[in-house]
Amino acid sequence: MTRTTVIVVWLVALALGPFRPAEAQQPGKVPWIGFLASSSAERLKTRLAAFQQGLRELGYSEGKNIVIEQRYGAGRFEKLRDLADELVRLKVDVIVAEGAPAAHAAKNATSVIPIVMGNAADPVGTGLVASLARPGGNIKGLSDFNVAVVTKRLELLKEVVPSASHVAVLLNPGNPTNPLQLKDLQTISRGLHVTLVSLEVKAPDDIEPAFATMKKDRAGALIVFGDPMFGSHRTRIIDLAAKNRLPAIWSISDYVEIGGLMSYGTNFDDLYHRAATYVDKILKGTKPADLPVEQPTKFEFVVNLKTAKALNLTIPQSVLYQADKVIK
Predict the structure, then answer these.
(1) How far apart are CA 256 and CA 34, in angstroms?
(2) What is the DSSP string of 93-131?
(3) Which of 57, 135, 242, 280 is the most exposed place for a label (fewest CB within 10 A)?
(4) For the domain 21-145+268-298, what is the CATH code?
């Protein structure tokens, strides 16, 4: 191959842009879905599987008539904009965003490509959409937010630990949904005779100092907000809660499965199964502006009696009756 030939080939490659295997097989026929996640691939295995199952039920076969390009921030929100830009450069047909930080990154990266929220707490309050019924713009999908869900966690915790007058709240201020959830808790805390001790964790190194503050302020219980960083360090947080003998409630059951006391929140696998329907409608020509944001319909409450025993805590029968799952 001559030097001139090499230069010509190189120029042609630049003109064509990123190579897309699916297009090479079926030009213009195989849609590309970008899956942009705030969390890690390991944490999102079941959610991605639920989304893929939803697509299969709608007639899509990955690698044949649809391709999913996955990008994971793994709790590092600063990476999300670059990952979103990658998906935009690949000219994906739809971006599915996991979590509000990923949805914001996708929104900042494109106003053209449709964005489907797999989950995002309070998309109106964080500025992702104008309203749930008429979101406007290119962002649609599902919200995992429900004020009653957030406040229910404090109510359940107070039922289990009625003596707790000070309740610590672990939150990440870099997550746009966490400060909003704190406001929701504050609206009912006085009625429950609870003083909230809010502790901001901006980085993993802030976790241990936060627990030192809880001990100093004599917190009797703990609420951990949903956040990818907390998910990445969930074992560490669970161990510290146990060491400090703090009954804690979490947003998802993953934490309870590995030793957390309780969780109450949205069934996220159900949300991602439903997200496939949004993708299908968009690929078949429905305008994103015609699709409202839907709220969660399935919730789950899980209790770990092993952890309760280790904390010398008796879970009232009135609370156990509400549980969808009890780990013994």
Answers:
(1) 31
(2) SEEEEESHHHHHHHHHH-SSS-EEEEE-S-TTTTTS-S-
(3) 57
(4) 3.40.50.2300
Residue 59 CA, distance from chain mean position? 26
Burial of 246 (0-12, 13-18, 19+ CB in 10 A): buried
Q: Domain 147-266+300-327 falls in which CATH fold?
A: Rossmann fold (3.40.50)
pTM over 0.85: no
- Name the phi and psi angles at 152, rounded to 5: -60, -35
Cross-strand partners of 200:
171
Structure tokens at 222: 């703990």
Q: How far, in Å, CA of 222 to CA of 251, rounded?
A: 12
Name residues whose C-beta falls within 8 Å of residue 274's C-beta, 6 or more positions apart in sequence: 54, 142, 294
Spell out the domain ranges in the chain: 21-145+268-298, 147-266+300-327
Q: What number is the average pLDDT over the span 302-306?
A: 98
Pinpoint the alpha helices (H) of the chain: 3-16, 21-25, 45-57, 80-89, 100-109, 147-160, 178-189, 207-216, 228-232, 234-243, 254-257, 268-283, 305-310, 317-320
Query: What CA–CA distance (Å, rounded) separates 295 from 129?
Result: 13
Chain segment 190-200, per-residue pLDDT in tens:
999 999 999 99
pLDDT digits (tens, 9 = 90+) for 49-73: 999 999 999 999 998 999 999 999 9
With residues binned 3-state (H G I as helix, E B as strand, rest as coil), the percentages for the chain, rounded to 5, are 45, 20, 40
CB distance 292 to 314 below 8 Å: no
Which residues neighbour 151 within 8 Å (Cβ) at sequence distance 6 or greater?
184, 185, 187, 188
